[in-house]
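Weekly structure sync, notes
Attendees: PL (lead), two postdocs, one rotation student
Agenda item 3: pending single-chain targets
PL asked that the sequence for the first pending target be pasted directly into the notes so everyone works from the same version. It is reproduced below exactly as submitted, 162 residues in total.
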Amino acid sequence: MGIPERLKDARGELALSQAALAEAINVTKRSVINWEGGTGTPTADVLKRYADIGVDVLYVITGQRSQPVSAEAVLPKEERALLDSYRLCSINARKNLLQTAALLAAGLGSAPPARLDMNIQVSAKGNHVVAGRDITIHSPSAKGSGGNNVKGRTPARPRGKT
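Predicted structure, written out during the meeting:
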């Protein structure tokens, strides 16, 4: 494997497209294509910019890793920020964060962006694990009739005389 292949491999470790890499190191996409295709070689200044975004330049040039690379080290910065935030949370907050992420991944977050007049409440008590039944979305109706509540479970029937 030569420098062009290792440049492409390094870009893959960062999970960046050629366009995103070009933007990150302040070069044109065409330059990245040329370097990865073997029709050009990045300058020392450009290799420093590669290093600045987390690329092991020694590996790119020689094929030898300068030090072992953890899986975390090659995460995009947004994912590292999430991981760092998770590590700062309490045990209960971690559980809630994981459950919120699961709900978002399951499609709760794929809906159109929330309107400004919409409230979302999460009601979990004690050591209770948050689930869909604990999430209430309140959206005022367009007719002003007091709103429409959507909850993760069917409301219980009233007890007693009706």
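Discussion points:
- Strands lie at 119-122, 135-139, 148-151.
- The chain is about 45% helix and 10% strand.
Action: rotation student to compare against the earlier draft before next sync.
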